[in-house]
Design a protein that fits this description.
Elements: H1 2-34, H2 40-54, H3 69-85, H4 89-112, H5 117-139, H6 149-168, H7 171-193, H8 202-220, H9 224-232, H10 237-243, H11 250-275
Helix pairs in contact: 1-2, 1-7, 2-3, 2-7, 3-4, 3-8, 4-5, 4-8, 5-8, 6-7, 6-8, 6-10, 6-11, 7-8, 8-9, 10-11
């Protein structure tokens, strides 16, 4: 019995962390050699690797809510292209907002369609607006620079959310959040050591992270305040940027990340305390 449990835990670790991080490391390294401006593809490849092995019932073309995570990741890449092509910040925000609405609608409509199209659209607009605000806050004046805190804040938020979802909501969504953290870390590691801008990866990672958090409320019935609290933790990177001016050194990155780690740890702890099941987990 213990041997079977150990094997199951090893497989879960491989699917949730090892495969996504390896895929992200390889894909990001290849893109830095080929064309540095497309490095966010490394994160997407890493996450999709995790999605394929974790969500074994994945269908393409998508049929169920979780299947549309593939589309969300791809829409994140489209948002990067739109941000690159459009000239003004206002147009970039509008384009990203529109793509987020599409992403959230596709992720939530299969579950909410019995409540009517209006409900799905309302959820998509509200979720998209919240994501745009968070993205704007954490990338403001950092986009295109060597400040890796915005991307690291996504990794920390995903890692903190994973156990909360796994224990209080859905093990599947919890594993996928772990895959987001692993893929983001692999992408960030290569960007850091090759001195490549990692801030572009914030957009597709927020498409996926926001989608998973919203789905965890709709699919796994987690309290809305838990989702909001976890989703807001990346904003702590603003404090880190003020505490320590970011450069290419790992020391400044670690010091700058401390507010994020503390904030995410406290939020995750409180959320776990609230959602912990009354019965034994075993």
């Amino acid at each position: 019995m213990y041997e079977e449990t150990g094997n199951a835990n090893l497989i879960m670790l491989l699917h949730t962390a090892v495969y996504p991080i390896l895929a992200a490391l390889v894909a990001t390294w290849l893109t830095t050699k080929w064309k540095p401006c497309v490095t966010p593809l490394g994160f997407v490849v890493g996450f999709l690797a995790g999605l394929i092995v974790i969500h074994t019932g994945l269908h393409f073309p998508p049929e169920r809510a979780m299947d549309f995570l593939v589309i969300s990741a791809l829409l994140g890449l489209v948002a990067i292209v739109a941000a690159y092509k459009l000239e003004t910040d206002k147009l970039k925000i509008i384009a990203t907002f529109a793509l987020l609405i599409v992403s959230y609608y596709l992720l939530l409509n299969p579950v909410l369609k019995h409540q009517g199209t209006t409900t799905s659209i309302a959820w998509a607009i509200l979720s998209g607006f919240a994501t745009v605000v968070i993205c704007t806050l954490i990338t403001h004046k950092n986009y295109g620079k060597t400040n890796h805190l915005p991307m690291l804040s996504i990794v920390i938020a995903s890692a903190a959310s994973s156990p909360v979802m796994s224990i209080g909501g859905s093990l599947l969504i919890g594993q996928l959040l772990g895959a987001v953290a692993a893929a983001g870390f692999g992408y960030l590691a290569i960007c850091f050591f090759t001195k490549t801008d990692s801030s572009k990866g914030v957009i597709p990672s927020l498409f996926v992270l926001g989608g998973l958090l919203t789905q965890s409320h709709v699919l796994a019935d987690l309290p809305l305040w838990v989702i909001v609290a976890l989703g807001l933790t990346p904003i702590a990177s603003l404090i880190g940027s003020r505490i320590c001016e970011q450069d290419s050194s790992i020391k400044s990155l670690i010091i700058g990340a401390l507010p994020n780690v503390i904030c995410a740890g406290v939020v995750a702890g409180v959320c776990l305390w609230q959602v912990w099941p009354e019965s034994s987990l075993y």
